[in-house]
Amino acid sequence: MDLSILAVQWDEVSGPQIISIYPNSSLEDPESVALQIYLASVTVFGQHGHTQRTEFTVPLLSLGNTTVARVAFDSWEDHSLRGKERVFFIAFISDQETSYLINTHLNMYIYEYLNILKERKSNFKTEDIWYKIASKSSREPEKIETKSISMDVGEDYAISQALRDLEVAKQAWTELKDRQQLWTALKIANRLETIDDNSSAEAFMLVGNIFLASGNFHDGKEAFEKAADLFAQVRQLEKAGESSFLAGKAASYLKEFDKAIELMQAGSLWLTNPKTQIILNYEIATAYHEQNKREEANSYFEKAIKLAKSSDISLAAKVSAIYSSKLSSQADQEKNENPALALGLLRKAAEQRITTADLLQKIPGREKDTARSLILAANAYFSLGNSEKALSLLLTAINIFIDVNENILAAKTLFDTAKNSDSPNVSLKLFNKILEILYKQESSEQSSALLGLTLFERGKLENKNNAIRAALSSFEDALKYLRKGKFSPSEMVFVNVEYANNLFQIEQYEKAAYAFLEAAKGLENDLKNQKAQEQQEKIIINAGISFRRASTMYHHAGIVAFNENEESKSLDYFMRAASFLLDWTELNPKINDKEREKTIQDRIKSLRQKEGEFVSAEAKYKIKSLIESLNLTLNPMED
User: Fold this and answer.
1) C-beta of residue 133 within 8 angstroms of C-beta of residue 105
2) In the Cβ-directed half-sphere of 187, how many Cα atoms lie within 13 Å?
3) For residue range 207-253, what is the model confidence (pLDDT) as tens digits?
4) What's the pTM?
5) How far is C-alpha 458 from the chain's CA centre?
6) Are strands 67-77 and 15-22 parallel, antiparallel or unpaired?
7) Are 197 and 163 in contact (CB under 8 A)?
8) Are 151 and 185 in contact (CB under 8 A)?
9) What is the b/e burial string over 22-47, where b = at least 16 CB atoms within 10 angstroms of the residue's CB?
């Protein structure tokens, strides 16, 4: 069945980490595919939108015009991360026809598979899911066992008829992938054996191909081995080599890796076609990798790449990308037991990613794939602590995205990297680069939203660097752009809180209070959630504290204005100070009664000291009314 299943967890530093893939060699560069899917999810749901459970379908044009992925995202708790959540996803990759066949099944079970992945994490196996889907798909044939088919063809089945039937069966399989031809091919293969070895070999090869496509790898291997022996007997050595190679692939699917290597190495002696030799060396490398025989695996990967560079650049790029992915996997396995070896392998993986990018750059239309390969290389160099090299590669990738008018994708890639960087200087540089790109971008909801998020993150860094005024400007611009990006009040809570804290820090208490209240308002639709209730309560208390501070500042300003004989201005300040003081008491119902009473009495005392010194009758009346209203808060009239 034309279906690949990919399970991935997202690492903040190194990007996609493959948990499991089946069939093992079905995707030439699973890391790049995983990166494409992740970036697509950011495009669809926004930054961090996929930490909530969701699913969608996305085209993967780099794999073919009809290739699509049905993807389900979720996250599990991981307290080693700053966000406390580890994003992961499972992707079902197929052509549109297969997608049509499996969608009914996935409509019912996709979240069940996601639950299994969430529970098992690194122990999750995509192979089990693949076979379950294969067995349930409505048009997928059942596994066909050789012993269930009668080999008694009868004397009346003429050789001439068998040869004609063989041509028809081969054509039906080649053009229509008609698996019903298996019956004919088996009958012909057994009828012609010892009579016409060449034709019998052709028939067994057809049998093997149909078994392989049906997932019956055991019988497929046997059919290919039979074909290889028969082709060798009639000196059809190229076909003998091809059959032996296919038998080896079937053995790989069965995890019989020693047998797979033996069959493929035997086939290599007869194969002369350069492309087949490349693929054969790649398959041997993969089999060695599965056995954890790294030196042998890496040697065959490098041999395959060397052969491909001189004959097929596209294939060389594919193998190079896979080799890099395998090196990253090897590094991940060694990071605890042998950190020095892990670093060496990761460095080699990064260098191989650059090689992949160099190869892709020579292929027209592969600009975005080139950029993605450079991004993966940059992630590896960030992990190695070589920020200078990483930034150089990342910015090269970004310029490629910009050259092909993918400004939003370029900005999102930078945003992800900046957010996950451990270096504030690197993050600030990347945020500024995003702003440079997006200010030139035609305004849209998407670009405005990304601008707002970038300005917000830059503001947080400026705050940490004690550039408080610069941070305030960044936060104000962030709010403006996020509103343009149609962010809802609930989505802007975190921005308003940070903005309010910044205002409080620079003693703009009145503005801070209203910013806190705006943040609290954004949580109103989530109050069934205990966490949201607690968060809103804290924010409202902070708003009250801000009002109290604002009240004190306005009261002092009133005293200064009074001393400068500006009665009108002084009264205005005193009234605003009293209003904010009352806001404080209303927003903080848990205030100690003694504290509340003393604060208001102190304010009344201060105002009374000034009451007799006001000149105009209007001013005397207003200050007296203000004192009486404050007294009422302490001694409310009974009904």
Assistant:
1) yes
2) 21
3) 988 888 777 888 889 999 999 999 999 999 999 999 999 999 999 88
4) 0.69
5) 22
6) unpaired
7) no
8) no
9) bbbbebbbbbbbbbbbbbbbbeeebb
